[in-house]
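In response to reviewer comment 3 from the previous cycle, which asked for concrete evidence that the modeling workflow produces usable outputs, we include below a single protein chain processed end to end. The sequence was submitted unchanged, and the resulting structure tokens are shown without manual editing.
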Amino acid sequence: MTSTVLHIDSSARTESSVTRSLSAEITARLTPERIIRRDLATPLPLLDAAWIGANFTPADQRSEAQNKLLALSDTLIAELQQADTLVIGTPIYNFSVPSTLKAWIDLVARAGVTFKYSESGPIGLLTGKRAIIAVASGGTQAGSDIDFATTYLRHVLGFIGITDVELVAADQLSMDEAGSMARAKTAIKALAA
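The workflow returned the following structure tokens.
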């Protein structure tokens, strides 16, 4: 049994969202002891010059204002650190992830906190975790040359150390909704709990 799941939804739809439905089903299948919910329907702030300045100021030299600027990022990272499994529900918007999910990524990918640089390149610091991505699309085939959402998520999760990444896809819904949903439901049933 999974101890803690960080369940993230990024669809702008709060009603009738395929990815919200699939990610909820995945989380239930895992039967976690604890669920941390992060709904990105309410957008997170975007990075700006002040945030970047605070982030690159050594922790022991940050002003109170800089610490306040980084507080949300610290909270989001703490949620990731506590989770054994990350469940992300994401639609494919214009071949990529929603801007709200990109904002979350920008806030959690922090040098020295979730990854570090070494002589041989970057090293992810959030190892030993599992991620399951529930993705839906109208026409984009998951894993195809025009899918920049799942390939990007696999890359960025690996960058911060999460390399055990599984995909549940309800893709090309506009072409074969019934078949696509059936395949996604089958994939959820096949997930190890």
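The two ends are 6 Å apart (CA to CA). We consider this sufficient to address the reviewer's concern, and the full set will be provided in the supplementary archive.
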